[in-house]
Amino acid sequence: MKRIYLFLIVASFIAVIVNRCCNNVEAVPVSSPKDPVQYAQDSFPFCSTLNDSVKWMIQEAEIEHPDIVYAQALLETGHFKSKIFNENNNLFGMKLPRTRKTLATGENLNHATFSSWIDSIEDYKLWQDSFASGKTRDEYFAYLGSVYAQDDHYVKNLKRILNKMNEDKKYLAQK
Hints:
two-stranded antiparallel ribbon; single chain; 62% helix
């Protein structure tokens, strides 16, 4: 009898945890009237900004080189202000893939559309697993420069963003 009570208590506890976790990552349709910042605040109450929510999700998806990927999101979206991000929920300027598994729901403005920016991050993970996993930091930068980007200065711009992020961390640590 004690085992049954213990089982019920543990099962109830797990159900509560799963319910809370699932509620935190609901998908928002592209046509949703919610803006991405409000969505981030609603969905990730432990994160204070969209930036923090995106960083957290990149880490949660176990994406390699998460700081580089976050810098890509900043660069590709113009700090989360681009039309492709706002209309397509596309953080990385991804095109609609033809040969790999994808979470894209369609195409708009010659770029993939996603149900939510979370799906965009998960799709990036699929891309990385298919084409760019296991690379050192330098190899990853080289790969992005030769395959991913259409801009000759892409890697230089990513490194500039990363340096700025590191400077900001140092500044905040000194306060």
